[in-house]
Amino acid sequence: MLPVSPEVKPNPLQNANFCSRLFVWWLNPLFKMGYKRKLEPNDMYSVLPEDRSQHLGEELQGHWDQEVKRAEKDAREPSLMKAIVKCYWKSYLIWGMFAFLEEGTRVVQPIFLGKIISYVENSDSTDSVTLQEAYAYATVLSACVLMWAVLHHLYFYHMQRVGMRLRVAVCHMIYRKTLRLSSSAMGKTTTGQIVNLLSNDVNKFDQVTMFLHYLWVGPLQAIIVTALLWMEIGMSCLAGMAILVVILLLQSCIWKLFSSLWSKTTALTDNRIQTISEIITGIRTIKMYAWEKSFIDLITRLRRKEIFKILRSSFFRGMHLALFFAVSKIMSFVTFMVNDILDNLITASQVFVVMMLFEALRFTSILCFPMAIEKVSEAVVSIRRIKNFLLLDEISQCYPQLPSDGEMIVDVQDFTAFWEKDLQSFEDRDLTEIGDRGTTLSGGQKARINLARAVYQDADIYLLDDPLSAVDAEVSRHLFEQCICQLLSEKITILVTHHLQYLEDATQILILKDGRMVQKGIYAEFPKPGIDFEDILLTNEDEEAEPSPGPGTPTLRNWSSSESSVQSLQSSSPSLKDATPEDKDTENIQAIPSLESSSIGMVGFKIYKNCFRAGAHWFIIVFLILINVAAQVAYFLQDWWLADWANGKSTLYAMVFGQGNMIVMPDPDWYLGTYSGLMVATGLFSIARSMLLIYVLVNSSQTLHNEMLESILKAPVLFFDRNPIGRILNRFSKDTGHMDDSLPLTFLDFIQMFILMTGVAGVMVGVIPWIAIPVIPLSIIFFLLRIYFLWTYGDIKRLECTTRSPVFSHLASSLQGLWSIRAYKAEQRFQEVFDAHQDLHSEAWFLLLTTFQWFAVRLDIICAVFFIVICFGSLMLAKTLNPGQFGLVLSLALTFTWIFQWCIRQSAEVEKMMVSAERVVEYTELEKEAPWEYEYRPPLDWPHEGELAFENVNFRHTLDGPLVLKDLTECTESKEKMGIVGRTGAGKSSLIAALFRLSEPKGGIWIDNISITSIGLHHLRKKMSVVPQEAVLFTGTMRKNLDPFDEHTNEELWNALEEVRLKETIESLPSKMDTELVESGSNLSVGQRQLLCLARGILRKNRILIIDNATSYVDPRTDELIQKNIREKFSECTVLTITHRLSTIIDSEWIMVWDSGILEDYDEPYSMLQDRDNLFYKMVQQLGEAEATVLTERAKQVHL
Hints:
six-stranded mixed β-sheet, transmembrane, single chain, 62% helix, ABC1_TM_sf, alpha/beta
């Protein structure tokens, strides 16, 4: 495993002084760098010690372990919620006081505003404040505005830090649990579910921590505001507060329904991601079977169900935001209407105090309080899902140390030379990256690397699960003699194998049948009557297999106790250096996994255009814009109406100056009717805008997801070799999750706030034109500052996305190699790598938080300057303004400072979310392989003969890679049964890749006189049946794996199972073909998986059948019966069989012999065995004299 972060830069925050921390000066160098060039991972600062994954994970794990023990003692179910609270309550509560102080400063602002307006109402009144007092109130109000802005961003920054820590800690625990899952537990979860836990579920912690405190701050503020309103206007304020209570009760019902929807949505998301994960894992099989369209239909159906739930929950949340937009107007309307019914008089200052107090409530009680309920509902569902995962069964972690006398048992220094020589074919030698599941390696290379890894462990006991199955006879003998017998001669070694020629070197032989030992002994004691080994010896094995509970699986134990056989091997075998066969594997793909690409700077307009284009037709977008304008016009007409009323004009209210300068309402029906009409219009337009915008963006997410899926499946196989599964799943999980869940609501919130903000500025300029003087330069400064900020912020967000992918890749690869990790006791090492990946991601996430804080501080200064200019400027011009104008401008200026901060925060969030959209759009534009269908289609009965012709065929897996097939020119006859053999990496499987055009071959390949490049890929691939070397199975029933898309009858399925000798096994299962297979079919043996895939290939009944090492893990007797069945059942078909097991193809009519990408020979097997210089003859002799004699005799019988 390569280092996660090649270079660590110290975090300047650790040494920053108070002023630098407050104004975030320590980030200035990063912004300068980001403006000049694209930021790279090495530019990020190291994660702070208190934010490290290991520290956070172990801390929370300790609390969880204590909670589990307490729960066992109390006979109850453990609560992950309790463990989280006990771990974080102290620090979280301290920062929660900032939320209270923040909202406290917001509540007092309307009071000071009212005092200032009182000065303008009547400066001669004995009850009015003096000009000096007005300036004093203006100063205090300005200080409150600045203090609120500082507290607001400090609170959100630290809450997000807490959320990050909780997320990182829970991810650590999830991965730790993954490494400990038992076999039964693995059947209860899937890769898709775990990926979803690590992407979407833990993401809820980042969100819930920001709003959780508003569960108590909101009600407390509502009580304080009610008291202040009572002091201002008396009991009529209760009418407005009643509206608030009704809305909150309504929203609480909505959030209960939302919680249920979210729980169902996550289950659907798990299913979709799991299916996509299996598609990516089995992409070669899917492409060769031409199943892309069928899987696109399957995922599209799953996605449609998921989107239906997402759309419903998003509509509920959209209604909430629409209410937020209009609720203060509704509350004001009801309050003033009740005030009129009670015949209470009200001053202009009181009008604007009431309005601003309702505005303060709107943010906290209508936005943040319901948001807290929503986020808590989501978090509770996620915590429950995570808790259920953490409570799954674990394997024992007990690793007893065997006694040792302190002496070195074996020295493996010379072993290095052997493996280094074997790595010469790789460009970067042992530092070559091999990608997920070793995609860049051939089967033989994987086997040898696994064996090398085992030997390097220098263990006392070795359990070798058939490491010789995927290599040719020469390499197999070399590995057995030089590695197993010689290097491990002083070790206890248990070898599971079908290679019977090696049994004579064993000290003990165990014969297993149906999961039971039927006989044990030494080689000289066999065969005995009634033992399957006798029958197996008659077939005299060949050279390959792996663990299969089928009959006759032998087990060897401890060569070291048989000194004579080991000594004979040592004396007769040359040294490792000399004995290593020349191994020039030309077949390995050598597609080095590429770094994840990313754009530069701000998200371009093209991405926004693509998103809306995917969501709706252009005229719907135009209609959406018009609705936004209409909603805003209706919203501000209410303010104009109210201002005119406060000024005493003939509009909603008329001010009649009399004693006490009170306001009376001469014609309430007309004014209240107009005001209510505007209020209803505002509400309807707001709801229509919310619903339509959410529909467009959610529909856009669905469309782009489907386009990305189709683009992925149309990409060449090389794309999957170069991109780890975690990187691809990241786009389908986290990025798609952002577009489904976060982007629509964040974008809606931003649009509402932006239009509101611009409308506020427009109204202020309309009332007092000179306000344009400070607005214009401050707007220019803001615009330039935003560009400067987003240039760096966009890069950091992309780094956050790209550093997230290795977390998922490491998880996926760990799940695939879980048993190997445990076998080598490498859990701690893999946990450390996971923590390192998390720390790298935390570096990017930390910069996301701090760079936004940097921006927010500077916005605070702009807002404070703006408000101070408006406030003191209005006071200077107070004599020229009436109370309505003065109150409207100051109240709007105060509102502007509130909404400006939130608008900018949401604009940055939109930019952040649009990076996810950008990444999804990027995957919709991938390079594609040839079209699936051309205009020209071959005849329906093509190919009717199955003749193959190759002319000067050269083939590479990559454009710049080495040739793996060189100048192939050959023809095959109709209905031929052809064997294809050669050393590991000789180019055998590459011949299949060329036939199926997994990469485009150079030269000509014809099937029944039709060039394969002249027809579509699906027309080609559907006409050939293939059984690939790697058994690919999907989660689901046995029946669904045989016939995923219900194309065959029940009888056909059972016949196929009978042909591959699986019928009896499956009939003995309780559910027969409806037996559920767990992920990757891991509840079957490797041999059974291969046979199931072979049955799937046989079902297609094409004229051309290609079998690529598909029986390598099956015992020789079963393999022989299967091959006999294939020759009988497919007598009218052309059959190509690739194998290392020479007994499998010795009965073939013709044999191709490959070496280093070149067709060395193509002849009848018996003819080649007559030539001692022939490569095939040498390969047969490698099996030993007895086996070679048997094979020669069989070839002779076929020849005669």
